[in-house]
Amino acid sequence: MSKFSIIYLRSFFILISILSIFNIIYSYYFNLYLNLSSYLPTMVISFIFVIVFFLVKSKDYKQSLFKKILSVVIGYFLIPIIICLPYYFSIYNISFVNSYFEAISGFTSTGFTIFDNIKHIDQSLIIWRSTTQWIGGLYFLFSIIILIDIFDESLKKSLTNFLSFNSSELLKQSIKVFILYIILTIFIFFVLKIINLRNFDAFNLSLTIIASGGFKPINELDYILNNDFKKILFSLTLLISFFSIFLSYNILFLKNKYLNFFSEDFYLLIYLISIISIFFIFFSDNNFSSLMLSITSSVSNIGFYLNENNNNLSFIYLILVIIGGSFFSTSSGLRFFKIFTLFKFSLNELLSHTKPKQILLSKIIFDDKKIDYDVINKYFLSIIIFILSLTLLSTLLSINDIDFSTSIKLGILTIMNTVNSGLYDLNNFDFYNLSVINKIVLINFMIIGRVEFITLIILIKKYLLKN
Q1: Contact, 209 vs 188, CB < 8 A?
Q2: Coil, helix or strand for 257?
Q3: If 411 and its partner were Cys, which of 335, 393, 406, 465 is the partner (CB 3.0–4.6 Å)?
Q4: Rounded CA gap, 425 and 311, in Å?
């Protein structure tokens, strides 16, 4: 293992150890002794990993792209093993497979859960669930910085003023993301307090929302979002994980006009306004505040649901889930900018054939950047891999006694790391009694969904196409 991989994974084991101590303190303070001992194995084992990583000496300072990808993928499998221990050692008699499934679901910010009634869970364990999503969202943002070399040149150029692709700059930008992530989490917490949510609910939801997760501290959000003002303000908080995490940074430091993260956020804003306008015009018979929450919940890949939502729109909400949000955010999806770029490129190609004498420049609307054919190939490849992944996952689920319609919907939500809910007619899906084979399949595809699709091709090429 390279020195870089050791430092990268060690940092998250330190964080897990600290957060497990926080849960122990919380349990002591509020006399929640039932599951107190369940956090000790996580604290001890994560601390042992930290010590081991400190003692391991590696002279390999090379940071090849393959080693970076391998470090990220190993983390997605290894870290949830430590995270799942409080579930496994709790009083609820949860099997290791179910515990690992819950941990993976949290760490990938998906939100699938084996618990059918949150009220029956200890408060400290509810906090642990939300904490795992918060850690997973941060891990995902760090992985984007680390794997920046696999992305298109336009994204690299937009990051150039922040990132110069060396070890010291990687550390610097990771710290910046960490600080922004904490600040935005605190901001969401205070916004939720404005709508008079109790501290426990506001804290858990803020951890989940910033990570685009789907874990809830209560069974139904309708009980706490009981008026239009609360629904609208809550919907706006969901957009924080829809736009780039650097949007707030750019707003604060607007004098740095050379920073161009605003470009993608500008497209996303137009896209969001268009979607809301279309829904308002054609579905005005629905409660607008509930409709707003459904839209923001889908585009941000969170999946929160109110019982009064219209289930007839589930197909449209699934499309919004597939499109996703900003590239440099905790949301998933194929990413709006990729689809927009491919649409623009395809339109140009069609026009060039219908009007061959007309000179057409492959430029993105509202921008002076020219579309590179390598970028188009990468974007198109991502969509192909998504289709193949969805086909494979849906087939595997169908073979294992899940009806085809449910398999398709569940496949989309799994790959897009979005919680199953009434928005997509899957709110009653039972993960606890799901077969072990199906759980293992979902575990792997939740990770595949969180890792950028193109990285899979690089790993396959490394092992299978060495020549």
Answers
A1: yes
A2: coil
A3: 393
A4: 7
